[in-house]
Every structure is written in C-alpha cells, then in structure tokens.
Amino acid sequence: ADPVETTCRHLFCRTCILKCIRVMGSYCPSCWYPCFPTDLVTPVKSFLNILDNLSIRCPVKECDEEISHGKYGQHLSGHKEMKEGEVYSYINKGGRPRQHLLSLTRRAQKHRLRELKRQVKAFAEKEEGGDIKAVCMTLFLLALRAKNEHKQADELEAIMQGRGSGLHPA
C-alpha cells in the first residue's frame, strides 16, 4: 500500500482515495473537507516507520508466515512462481466503487434505500404508532450527535419539540 495524507490529516491508501475522489468528487470520504489529488502528501516519516513494522499474515494459501509490512511486497514476490489463481489477490480488483448516495438520482436513491425504508416503516408501525417522520427525525438527530454536530442537533430537537428553530430575532 502507498499511504497518503489529506490536507485534513486523514490517511488512505493512494489507490483507494484516488478511486474514491474520482467517483464521489473532490472530498475527503471521512470528513467531506475539499480534497484534490494534488493535495495528497506522503505521511510523516514516524508514521511510515510504524506502518512498516506492523506484522501482516501472508494471505497466500498454505503460507502462515507473518511478515512486517515493509517486507510484504518482497515476501509476496517470492510466491510468484505459484500458478495464477493460487495466490490470494491483495488488491481489490472488483467492480467500480459505489457512488455516494447524494450523487444519485432520486429514483436510484429510493432503489438503494428500499430495504431501510421497509425496516423504518415496520419499526414506526410497531413502536411509534406509524409515525415514520418522528422515527426518521430521531435517526437524523442521533446521526448528528454521533458526528458531534450538537448545534444542528439542538436546533432539530427544538423543531421536533415545537419550539421553533431556536433562533431569536436580534
């Protein structure tokens, strides 16, 4: 892996973050701070030293050896004489990455969320007398608090309790 650091100090594998930026736009997937491929830098040397000393179990069938991350590529190249397909692929070569929900059309959003919608509806009918809006607002409130967005959560809570937006005229 080729680790890189964003301007917002999050760490990613270069290949993965570039795929993510290409699909989701120029934002950090962790915090949504603007992030461009040209902004990616090599992390500080101390981090790289720690990373290189981490032990990794070899993913090749019938090889249970543990190797330091720094020597992983060299160790894996020793398995190249094995037939194709016998070696576990350590790079994700699957299909295209999933698009972010907000970048989809409304129809595609509904399609992707249909199972969640069904579960929310069932929960609302069982626990809240069918009040889907209250369940969704509560889920949103919990999501805001989980991301430390307490000011927005307080405003939403005030709206939910009928106290308005919590904003007062000057």
UniProtKB/TrEMBL annotation:
GO molecular function: double-stranded DNA endonuclease activity; histone binding; protein homodimerization activity; sequence-specific DNA binding; ubiquitin protein ligase activity; zinc ion binding
Keyword Transferase: yes
Keywords per UniProt: Chromatin regulator, DNA recombination, DNA-binding, Endonuclease, Hydrolase, Metal-binding, Multifunctional enzyme, Nuclease, Nucleus, Transferase, Ubl conjugation pathway, Zinc, Zinc-finger
Major location (coarse): nucleus
Pfam family, one: zf-RAG1
RAG1-type domain residues: 54-83
Recorded catalytic activity of this chain's protein: S-ubiquitinyl-[E2 ubiquitin-conjugating enzyme]-L-cysteine + [acceptor protein]-L-lysine = [E2 ubiquitin-conjugating enzyme]-L-cysteine + N(6)-ubiquitinyl-[acceptor protein]-L-lysine
Subunit composition and interactions: Homodimer.
Protein name: V(D)J recombination-activating protein 1
Organism: Mniotilta varia (Black-and-white warbler)
